[in-house]
Amino acid sequence: MADLEPVTLQDPSSSLRASYVPGAGMICTSLADNSIEYVGQRRGLQAYVSDGKTMGIPILYPWANRLSANEYRVADTEVTVIPGTHGVRADAHGAPIHGVLAASPDWQVTERTDNALVAQLDWDSDQARLATFPFPHRLTVTVTLEDRALTVATAVAPTRDSSVPLCYGYHPYLTIPGVPRQDWQLHTPTMRHLPVDDRGLPTGEAQPWPGGTMRLGSTELDDGFDDVSTGAVFTLSGGPHRIEVAFEQGYGAAQLFAPAGDSVVGIEPMTAPTDALRHGNYKMAAPGSPETATFSISVV
After folding, report:
1. pTM (2 decimals)?
2. What CDD domains is this protein classified in (predicted)?
3. Among 57, 139, 224, 226, which is disulfide-ready with 172 (CB 3.0 to 4.6 Å)?
């Protein structure tokens, strides 16, 4: 049975706190200033553990969002993933979605202080994970809460002689408490828009995205992007509240998600666009050269 005991981090310079549950996929379940919560709770932690219904800030690994088929190829390695086996989940159209680590109990905490947490997961010791992503490596997540910012650094270190495709991401569900959704302001940087079809998969087209600020109103979003610059900042604000998501390094793609029926916006850092594992447009972590990607969420 999964250990759902949270680890709470305290910002030494403010009243901001963050809670993580390493035993449920190393998910962040709260980012709060006193009683003011800034991450969406949606259906809650238990639904995430039992049904993979996302909430908080989950990691999407080893691929973010959807694959367009149940097969992919990396160099000479051909892989078949089967929804319902080895942790693979499917969306409403049957597409494999969000990787295989939802609520995984296998994370091991290696370091903990009042405002920092380090957890690791070994990918070379689990045959089920290797069946879906046969690239042995060690995954390390380091989170730090300081100066009103939660910083998340994710390192991928190959443990054998094969490189590891980098197609993962995170799904921060952010919310502005006490302000109606229609009055939220969303600011995005200049990047490239990747339109999707009715299954949520990229069409292959690309369009310039000038960025700027928009009032959310009744807008629904589930849109992909690439050409996101290092250091790019996305902002969600309303009333006295402002949340900034900075793609500090390693995240050249993004997904924006704003469902009509829920007062959350997902500003998702991704190391590669949706379906990259099928199309090869990703970077690799080479043996002896770990790759680290970092993003931060600041509450201003």
Report:
1. 0.97
2. Aldose_epim (cd01081)
3. 57
Report whether 269 contacts 247 (CB < 8 A): yes
pLDDT < 50 stretches in the chain: none
Is 127 strand, coil or helix?
helix
What is the C-alpha radius of gyration for the chain, rounded to an integer number of angstroms?
18
Residues 6+ apart with CB under 8 A from 240: none
**CATH, domain range 7-299:** 2.70.98.10
Q: Residue 1 has what pLDDT?
A: 52
Angle at 228 between CA 148 and CA 77, to 5 degrees: 110
**pLDDT computed for residue 2 by the predictor:** 67
- Nearest to 262, CA basis, from 224, 216, 296: 216
Backbone φ, ψ for residue 181 (5° rounding): -50, -40
User: Considering only CA atoms, which of 118, 156, 150 is closest in space to residue 136?
Assistant: 156
Q: What is the pLDDT of residues 9-22, one digit of tens each?
A: 999 999 999 999 99
Which helix (H) or strand (E) segment holds residue 271: the answer is none
Which sequence spans correspond to the domains of the chain? 7-299
The 8-class DSSP code of residue 47 comes to H
Q: 142: which 2 tokens?
A: 């380091």
Q: Any idea what DSSP says for residue 61?
A: B
Peptide bond into 62 cis (omega under 30): yes
Element (H, E) at 217: none
d(CA 34, CA 131): 43
**Contact criterion met (CB below 8 Å) for 192 and 227:** yes
Parallel, antiparallel or unpaired: strands 169-170 and 164-166: unpaired
- Dihedral sign for Cα 8, 268, 91, 184, please: positive
